[in-house]
UniProtKB/TrEMBL annotation:
Its cofactor is Fe(2+). The chain holds residues 421 to 858 of 858 of the full protein. Residues 314-335 are annotated as: Disordered. Transmembrane segments: none annotated. This is Multifunctional fusion protein. The keyword NAD does not apply. Catalyzes the oxidative sulfurization of hercynine (N-alpha,N-alpha,N-alpha-trimethyl-L-histidine) into hercynyl-gamma-L-glutamyl-L-cysteine sulfoxide, a step in the biosynthesis pathway of ergothioneine. Keywords: ATP-binding, Iron, Ligase, Metal-binding, Monooxygenase, Nucleotide-binding, Oxidoreductase. Its EC number is 6.3.2.2, 1.14.99.50. Belongs to the glutamate--cysteine ligase type 2 family. EgtA subfamily.
């Protein structure tokens, strides 16, 4: 019966709320001394104590007040934690809740939310709660901030997080650097009836693409080094004009966190220095670097639609899958997600995670830059608020797809869209290449 379904959904929601909170606390309470919660390691990032209370304030706004109709708990702090009122650079100067108060506040919000969960009805005629939407939105919001907090940790100089030994990534020798043909024709792009998909993933719609080739694996650090060794950073021919300007004004000549010692390239990863692993997908490159590499290699970045068709379309069945491998949820044999390791798996890993076209690692490991600007799909309707997606639509932001090793499986469905400025390198982003078939 529907009621039983609703109870099962509520149990799942309670479990997911608790899992995302464990993760947030693990990234703040357990591993950090108080002063480090308060400092800002880069003007690009918030102090971790801001993320922490913002997570709870978002939950108060959407679950306590909007979904359950509850009374405001701390309305006077709404402004402090409104991302649009205060850009990241000015957050450390705000009268933020100190760490203990922030933890107590988010715990109190959570207690009240769980207290109301039983009485909330997920009526199909209320789009906010239908299918548990707003609960899914809040859980995914917390996980997205957790990934942002990991990027903050990566920017710190000192080792802060335990570095779990990654369970060996399943591989079969890998297809190497290879490409597959995706034949011309239409496919279904976007989410059709996924209750936890965001507004920017909807509506599902047909997109007809010309034939193209796409890489079966992400571009490796070793391949990227070849671009560097060939003088790629010094050759204006490979760069978008705005990218060349970024290259010259920033002085960058290598991916983020890389540095050279004699003839060897090293990198700093969560405070530890290690040789750059040549077989790992390259990480911490901006869109301009990805674009320049692709042009140097005689190729180009895939469009967002090309990425999604290669990831989700099943040409034999004539339908789009939820994930590259099918509709089963992600697990450790299919994709490197959920912060199991603090790094991508080698390019070519996860044969069981391949898409219908045989393309690997589309989900997990590194976010993949696409050539596309972030825009609404035909028929887009903002829901439940314009500041999640709509205010970012336009030519300023490029779309990233597929999630990284730091992305939680709940936000790793094949329709999920991420976006950032083309100069950004602190996110866990790499890329793969494509080319026209004609
Ligand atoms: C989708 C990752 C670009 O972090 O700015 C967090 C997610 N939205 N709080 C971001 C988000 C509101 C968003 N990204
Ligand atoms: Fe947020």
């Amino acid at each position: 019966t529907p009621v039983q379904d609703e109870d099962a959904l509520k149990e799942l929601i309670a479990a997911e709320l608790s899992a995302s909170r464990d993760r947030s606390l693990g990234l703040t309470t357990d591993v950090l001394a108080t002063p480090e919660l308060l400092t800002q390691v880069s003007p690009l990032m918030s102090p971790l104590v801001w993320d922490l209370a913002h997570i709870g304030n978002y939950e108060e706004l959407w679950l306590l007040r909007a979904a359950a109709g509850g009374d405001p708990l701390r309305p006077e702090i709404d402004g402090l934690y409104d991302a649009f009122e205060h850009p990241r650079a000015e957050r450390p100067k705000l009268p933020l809740l100190p760490p203990d108060e922030a933890r107590a506040y988010i715990a109190e919000v959570r207690t009240r939310v769980l207290g109301t969960l039983e009485d909330v009805r997920f009526r199909p005629d209320n789009p906010l709660t239908a299918g548990g939407f707003v609960y899914g939105m809040v859980v995914q919001h917390e996980h997205q901030h957790d990934e942002t907090m990991l990027a903050t940790h990566q920017l710190r100089r000192d080792a802060a997080l335990p570095d779990p030994d990654p369970a060996a990534a399943p591989a079969d020798g890998g297809p190497g650097r290879d490409e597959v043909l995706v034949e011309a024709g239409p496919f279904v792009m976007g989410a059709e009836d996924d209750p936890w998909a965001y507004d920017n993933e909807r509506p599902g719609h047909l997109v007809d693409l010309p034939a193209y080739y796409i890489d079966t694996v992400p571009v490796s650090a070793g391949a990227y080094l070849a671009f560097m060794a060939a003088g790629g950073y010094d050759d204006e021919r490979w760069w978008d004009p705005a990218g060349w300007e970024w290259r010259c004004s920033s002085g960058r000549r290598a991916p983020g966190f890389w540095f050279r010692e004699g003839v060897q390239w090293l990198r700093r990863r969560f405070g530890r220095v290690e040789p750059v692993p040549l077989d790992e997908p390259v990480q911490h490159v901006c869109w301009y670097e990805a674009d320049a590499y692709a042009r140097w290699a005689g190729r180009r970045l895939p469009t967002e639609a090309e990425w999604e068709k290669a990831a989700r379309w099943d040409p034999a069945a004539g339908r789009s899958r939820r994930h590259p491998w099918g509709d089963d949820p992600p697990d450790a044999t299919r994709a490197n997600l959920g912060q199991r390791a603090l790094r991508p798996a080698p390019a070519g890993a996860y044969p069981r995670g391949a898409s219908a076209y045989g393309v690997r690692q589309l989900v997990g490991d590194v976010w993949e830059w696409t050539s596309s600007d972030f825009r609404g799909y035909p028929g887009f309707r903002s829901f439940p608020y314009k500041e999640y997606s709509e205010v970012f639509f336009g030519a300023d932001y490029k779309v990233l797809r597929g999630g990284s090793w730091a992305t939680h499986p709940l936000a790793a469905r094949g329709t999920f869209r991420n976006w950032d400025y083309p100069i950004r390198r602190q996110i866990f982003a790499g890329f793969r290449c494509a080319r026209d078939a004609a």
